[in-house]
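Dear Dr. H.,

I hope your travels went smoothly. While you were away I took the liberty of generating a structure for the chain from your last submission, since the lab meeting agenda had it listed for discussion. I wanted you to have the full record in hand beforehand rather than looking at slides cold. The sequence, exactly as received, is reproduced here:
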Amino acid sequence: MAADSCASTGEKSGDTLKCPPYHCGRVSARVVLFELLCIGAEVLMIADGVCSEMQPTGREIIRGFQDEMKLAGLSPEILTGSTEENFPTVMTGVGTAAVGYFPGNFKAPVCCSEDLLVCVGKPAAGLDFLHRNAPIATYDMIRTLSRDKDVHELIPVGSHGLAWESRNTAALHHLSAAFDVPCELDLTQSGGPSSCVLAVMNAAAFKHHKAQLLLTPIGHLQQMA
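The corresponding predicted structure, in token form, is as follows:
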């Protein structure tokens, strides 16, 4: 199961990021879909808790959900949800949950010392993410990497940034993260709505995919000191 929240992103008076509420739906769906797809789950359903009236805000948020689901190759028919019709709202917001399942037995990822830490796409948040040509991770990139046994783990990057996700992932495997110096990317920048993905892979996988996918090496895993 995956969950996410998005608030203050729309056209209401209390919104900080001024943009069509359609984008609130798109990014909300993207976050939960990336979280499920990155661990190899198949998506069963998505629920949107729209904290706004149906007309016109909710309708546009739902349209954003539906378009993002189509982009991921999913039917909008697996979307359910609710809107706020009891009280007027001054800020756009939505809470999202998604449920997936594994068609076989779940195998926990195994990462090793000397595995590379690689950023898929580049971190972007706010208006930078909404830019039409933003170099973000795509569903096709995730599917390609998921099929490679030499790619050991995929982790969507959110507000904590690449460095935090790298250290957290390393610790789960009783390892530590060593970062490249200098590094091309700002490892503390928010990844926003899963604009990029942290991939843990061996050198052979990186060599195989680097010409076709937007990959940036940021470091490697090592034994704890």
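Two observations you may find useful: The longest strand covers residues 42-50. The mean pLDDT is 96.

With kind regards,
E. W.
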